[in-house]
Amino acid sequence: MTAVTDSYFSALIGRLETLRETLAEPMSRASAAICAAARSDRRVYIFGTGHSHMLAEEVHYRAGGLAFTIPVLIGSAMLHEGAVISTVYERIEGLIRPVLERYGMQPGDVLIIASNSGVNAAPIEAADYGREIGATVIAITSLAYSAAIANGRRRLADLADIVLDNGLPPGDAMVDLPGTELKVGPASTAVGTTVLNAIFADVAAELCKDGNPPVYLSANMPGAKEINQQLVKKYRPRNPHL
């Protein structure tokens, strides 16, 4: 392993070790909110733009994942339809609300919003919408990043009911390039997916008290086809991406 790869591994592992302590309380609150939603037959929506949208895809129809999760996927604000223009779209006010309205979010649902910088129009508008319809809003964001760039703008962290601060530095990247002022090794995706999967694993364990939780199996595992088909049949009516 080179010095650079070792630095990235060390930085990422160190960040996760720290988060295991600092996020213990808000992760417990997030787990409780999601459990309450699940027990009331509500849904958990996950939204992010740019690279943050990968957190929504991470928990969607995932082996070992819970079937009541719904990704909010907006092509223009992701990357595959144009990475450069997606940065423009996520800063345009009024773009997100009409899309969210199509998902049929209800009071008692949970809306998880991932935004590392936490100040662009898209996550702010999503948080406003979630609060208006009576959903529990959970933010995955960097408080240090948003504090550094807010300049008087509203921050996602100030609008969420539960804040999961990933503790990452402004700009996301964690490794210095020798002889330059550049940094590489972004970590928000790795950290965000780890935090999400940990929360949903905790939720699944709690729901075991009620019987078998709605967990997808990997398609290659015995019995997966039948179990997954049953889950899709139940949850498809409110999930347009199944």
UniProtKB/TrEMBL annotation:
Recorded hits in CDD domains, A to Z, give: SIS_RpiR
According to the lineage, what is the superkingdom? Answer: Bacteria
GO BP of this protein? carbohydrate derivative metabolic process
The cross-references to SUPFAM superfamilies, in alphabetical order and at most eight, read:
SIS domain (SSF53697)
InterPro entries from the UniProt entry: RpiR-like_SIS, SIS_dom, SIS_dom_sf, SIS_GmhA/DiaA_subfam
Q: What name appears for this protein in its UniProt entry?
A: Putative phosphosugar-binding protein
Q: Domain SIS, which positions?
A: 34-209
User: GO MF terms on file?
Assistant: carbohydrate derivative binding
Origin organism of this chain?
A: Rhizobium lusitanum
